[in-house]
Amino acid sequence: MKLPAFLRTPPPDVALEIGAGRITAARLQFTGRPTVAAHAVEPLPEGAVVPGLAGPNMPDVGVVGAAARRVLERVAPRARRVALVVPDTVARVSLVRFETVPAKAADLDALVRWQVKKTTPFALDLALVRYTPGQALPDGGREFVVVVVREDVIRQYEQACAMAGAEAGLVDLASFNFINAVEAGRERAEGDWLLVHVAPGYATLAVVRDRVPIFFRNRTEEGEGSLADLVHQTAMYYEDRLSGGGFARVLLAGAGGRDGGGEALRRELSTRLGQPVELADPRAAAGLADRIDAAPELLDALAPLVGILCRERVA
Q1: Under CATH, domain 190-280 is a member of which superfamily?
Q2: Is 292 exposed, middle or buried (CB count within 10 Å of its CB: 0-12, 13-18, 19+)?
Q3: What is the pTM of this model?
């Protein structure tokens, strides 16, 4: 049964990102074109958040919760429900293919869990497993985008929100919401496109086709080779294994805090790929209120927050 509009929970208009080194919050107005009405960034002490798969990410959740409260007080002091963005490295993302998709949800859930159990470095009874349909396959099958995260890890992030006085009504990964911000833009990319997301401690590459990822790879900074090497390898894999006909766009996200706003890295990747590389810019999806500076570092900070909030409105 579909509930009447006055009984439904409205999607949040405030989003919070908890990452290594900082917490960022933004509030969007949805009267007409979406607009970032307020934002705040709070630095975190070194080691306050150490994103990872295997165990607790916060030695002291109270420190993070107090910072989250200060950020929300500056952006939306009455917010009681927020969308929460967390680092990619807290989860394992897999693209899983099935030639035949079970008709029953319980059977599909069991099949997904059986498939990802092989590559998950901890017991699935400790995990939350979530998935969404990916690309349709030529033979009638379906690919699914599957996210596995330890429940105790994600509960720390939710607990930090609760300490700030807000419920995390939705939790999602940073790179997914850079993708959402691009797809919410007024000029959506035609054809396949590549996201290169650099963040403290890791880099994520995603190839998007028809609004869903068909390739997703996360690498920590300890991985071998340079980022340019990884991007080149991804481009070769895309052409050879994913029937790629060339990227319509290549977007670099998260590099705004580097010297020169990420311009040196953008040029390096452009040279390596032999095509232009753009800096991700959430202003295609949401405008900025007066007096909000559009520095590259701030645009990077706002993009995943814009992405998750705009996605919820569309949903």
Answers
A1: ATPase, nucleotide binding domain (3.30.420.40)
A2: middle
A3: 0.94
